[in-house]
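Bench notes, bay 3.
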Amino acid sequence: MTKDPLIGRLVDARYEIVDRVARGGMATIYRAHDRRLDRMVALKLMHPHLADSPDFVARFRREARAAARLSNPGVVAVYDQGSLDGIAYLVMELVEGPNLRDLIASGPLTVREALGLTAQILGPLGAAHRAGLVHRDVKPENVLLPADGSVAKVADFGLARAVTEVAQTTTGNVLGTVAYLAPELITTGSSAPCADVFSVGVILYELLTGVQPFEADTPIQIAFRNVHEDIPAPSLRVPDLPESVDELVAAMTRRDPHSRLDDADTALDRLRQIVSTLSEAELAVKRGGATGSVRTQEVLAANAEAARTAMLVTDGTESDADAAEAAADAATPGAGLRTVSLPIGSIAPDGAAGGRDGTTRALDRSRLSRGADTQNTQPVARHSARRPRRRAVIAAALLLAAVGSGGAWYFTAGPGRTVPVPQIVGMSAQDAQDAVEAAGLVWGAPTRAYSDTVPADSVISCSPGADTRLHPGQAVTPVISRGIEQKVVPDVVGSTQEDATSAIVDAGLTLGAVTKTYSDDVASGMVISCEPQSGSTVDHSSAVAIVVSLGRQPATVPDVTGMSVEDATTTLEAAGLTLGTQSEAYSDDVASGMIISSSPASGAEGYHHGDAVDVVVSKGPEKVNVPDVVGMSEREAVTALEDAGLDPQVSRVMGGLFDTVHSTDPSAGQSVEKGSQVTVNVI
């Protein structure tokens, strides 16, 4: 295999490329060492053929800046951007570990594992939706699972949009992506946060079943089915799946975007509500088949705590059935020991039912199993009618026992009376207090917390939650919003890039795009400016972009010899230089008014924009006046002419009998070029 020529290359005098991690349809990912901060990063280099599109390059960088604005532990952070040999690159957080596609390849997951991973995907998508961004390409390949067990991370925010605006997806790329596209993305190209919810719903289906909802030979056939068919209930493949999980998948993947869950935050709230109703047995349901590789089991085990946190589930949670049993014991003396008689047929089979004679009878489990199998063969069947939950049995028993014993008063007007906690989330604090007190409950001492989504002085949440039944006079404790937490942008102008980064992070903000440019006034490596400006008050989730100086821009001294002063001035200015001192000198080779030489000479290094270049301008050949040597002896005349820089040529008349100069040619006083011949006539 040919070695990648970029391995070992140093990018921007900072990022040393170590090896290649992956190659996709849009870019190649490299592992690189950030020498400046001494850390490993991921360097994503755009494919050269995409660099020919100015629109794509601009969108690539713009979308990278948008992704950098997201401050969420579940988003792969973008640290830097630049270009290498004219090709755009991004520097991102390096996530060591598999992606979700690797995990799915090992087989279906339990309900707990599938919902835990789904909750971790919805978290960062919710942050994106609140920031006005739609991912548009949510798929298992874009969900990374850190080997250290920290929260799963979603990658490539916004980049898919840049790709599709340059060219429609290619055959090699569509098959892995089209299964997750919302119908409206396929039919009209329009997108909203609910399109991302659809994609996550398909991923949840795949986590539960181990397969995609639709199979076909070509991408267009899958796209057609996405548009024209509802996502099937996962319980058709996982018979014991809780009905509420089926309903969650359906709510997330409705074909009509207006009927679908609005955004990731809404979907996450629905998921958490469902988790709170599931028993341990229901959370452990898993489709039969592969148990996954050892590596898969290690990843899931490491991720378990992050999943638990994302679902707001803690160990020791009391199941609904257990709660019902406890309520029965508290409401009716001896209820835990009493046998309640129920008419046959009043409750569907669940392993035990009341006989007509008032005794408790066991059901034929084999017959029940056969009945369930028969029901499963129906293509549209859902096991909600197959067997009621244990809590339904207990609730019905409690109700009949209470009515039969004359206990209705106990629950409607007596000590057992309860009222539901009103829905107050989103209300103003005053309206919420009025609603709680109107229900006969007590307004507990509020706590206050910042919120990115709930306006100031409105209710973020309450404990107990809405619809929980309490005895009159019990307290409902609210959490009131302080609004979006505000931070002050620190003064980083004039600081080094490292110090500026630390100051921004210490201020509770995130570092945004880092742009580098030349500056005549600011030393290399120092911050020229930031946006928002220092001293500004901004939302805590804001990113601060900085402009870092590369120092003075280097300049190459051009060759201006032989040019006129005017042409030399124009040439120097085009190179970022200025014309300096002009001196003059005679030249036998360079015409008058033309440049003889420059200082520094052409090609000299170490000079920068704005530096001056001195020139020597030719005065042409030097002139001398022919001296008057008439009457001198031949020797005297020759000496005088040579001293004047002329070339004497002697002509003797009649042999130069008198050794006296009679005349010269040119004659005395004429101006001639230095070195010219002068004929001396001697008689």
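Next record in the batch:
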Amino acid sequence: MEDNNKSYHNGNDPKAEQLKAYTSNHQGEYLNTNQGLKINDDQNSLKSGERGATLLEDFILREKITHFDHERIPERIVHARGSGAHGFFELYESLEPYTKAKLFTDTSAKTPVFVRFSTVAGSRGSTDLPRDVRGFAVKFYTQEGNYDLVGNNMPVFFIQDALKFPDLVHAVKPEPHNEIPQAASAHDTFWDFIGQMPESMHMIQWLMSDRAIPRSLRMMEGFGVHTFRFINAENKASFVKFHWKPLLGVHSVAWDEAQRISGKNSDFHKQDLWDAIDQGQYPEWELGVQIVTEEEEHNFPFDLLDPTKIIPEEMVPVRRIGKMTLNRNPDNFFAETEQIAFHPGHIIPGIDFTNDPLLQGRLFSYTDTQLSRLGGPNFHEIPINRSIPEVHNHQRDGMHRMQINKGKVAYNPNTLAGGCPFQAKMAEGGFHSYEERIDAKKVRARSRSFFDHFSQATLFYNSQSEAEKRHIQNAFSFELGKVMVEGIRQRIVDMLLEVDVDLAHIVAANLGLLPKKLPQPVTGSIPADGDPEAHHSFKEELPVAASEALSMQNTIRDIRTRRIALLAADGVTGEALVQLKSALVEAGATCKVIAPKQGFISSDDGELVKVDESFLITSSVLYDAVFIADHSNTTLLADCKDALHFVAEAFKHCKAIGATETGNSLLQIALPQEAIQSAGVITDGNTGAFMEAVAQHRFWEREETPVVAA
């Protein structure tokens, strides 16, 4: 003991000394595999030709992703924080000319689904409201087996090749030396990586937009991200992209509001989804497809296999083919939402893959990561993961085996079991991979058709409303303002110059910088022996300058499921409150009476009115709109500082505000006259006008109106 104590007193921590032997800073060293082999190209997976399929023999890809998949247990490395629900999918019209998948040809079927929504970067204990991509994964329990459509609420991704996925996630995760910041991309390592990967520029526009801070999981789009294949009964293939369109529209919160919600209720989205289903306000999405024939594959100024690109809806309209409804909450969060295992390789006859190099890597990664998370190869036997068709094969044993197989035969072919279970012919529903011709050299390379990194980023920015553009400018300024290394900030600003000149100059001015024209931008994906001149990026001229579908300004606007705060105090006009609440509920909204104290308040006729929440336990950021109820005593609420703050904060976040004549006394104190006269503020108690304002969701033009800080 004396020796150990002496070493501590001398400033020598025995544990720290022990760890030094396992520490390396890699300074000046070559990149190599875990077997010591020097790596020549860490940017591209091994493919059969530049646009060909990724090869299983790529031991570098498999080693890198295998290690990545097994880094943490048991929570998911990405998409750890999730919310889930059960539901069903119904098909509007048969797609038999394009696919033989019964899911998309049988209009009489009602297919069960389980959907898991998630954030990407944060841990299970992080908030629901970071600026982040949202996962949108759907498991269809079809009669032909499970089909997983594993996507996001953004239609593109940061990278083009799966080999870079561990690098992306390592960059966006908390910095490893101090595990800071949690669930946030506003730090040096993320933007350092992005600054070296121009292919991320399109996705970064989406991430800095309001799409990254959705109002509700029920109010965001979903996308399959990749281009997949449909295969019909004649074995003819078409390309397809999948879209989920929410019937409540696509809506967001303000960034300041998102940060406050995280402090008031970090389970905001999870609670919102649960409550909506629990109250019978079932979330609904229509499934849309963009179908491109094989003959049309090369008719676009971008590559269909590039996961950083969309097909603008003006070029190929989205065809809505069915509807998904979520109508049942899980019985047990862990057993269902946490243990469900998705995989883009879970497909059914009539659906197949393309050579998208990001998709090809995902086909390996998802099964591999479940081996760590769910304790071995039998995760398919967990109830939430079981298929409707009973499983018959020769796989045996392993950890957590549930199925009890009879007999002594566990191999194929056999005679002792009469050859059972049999192989299924294609006509009997047997899966048959699409017979794509492959004639190419084995290379680590990327097709030049993937080198346009800026045209679609510009398309997205040009498609936004003025308010949405302002939010993107502010988001870049906020995120880069958190970056400590000026050279990283400068690099991103310079890259923004390739997207939009005004955007670059506004962000640069906010950071105290000047944007500079980059040397010829390169792909960021150059192997050690590669020629930089061969990797110059370029910018295609797109046939559309802007796309209406990319702006949330053009979305559905509806009062249904909106949360309305009714501010009241003693002396509230009881009959008027009842009528107001009834009208709002009949229109589909949810109303809560908010008062200075919990329990009950007295109405003007002496009746007791139940209070749902007091100002002490709630906040305006948890509501979509505010109405100041009619009172016989106009001073009780006006003298309440919490009520004044509630209204001023709601105005700051551009929400609908309603008041009767008596409620105006509170408005006069909480808001300047200019604010009271602005859009979305109803001062005459007109219920119909207030409901129309609530349906608009937000009045973003009010961001320019000065108001006392809330």
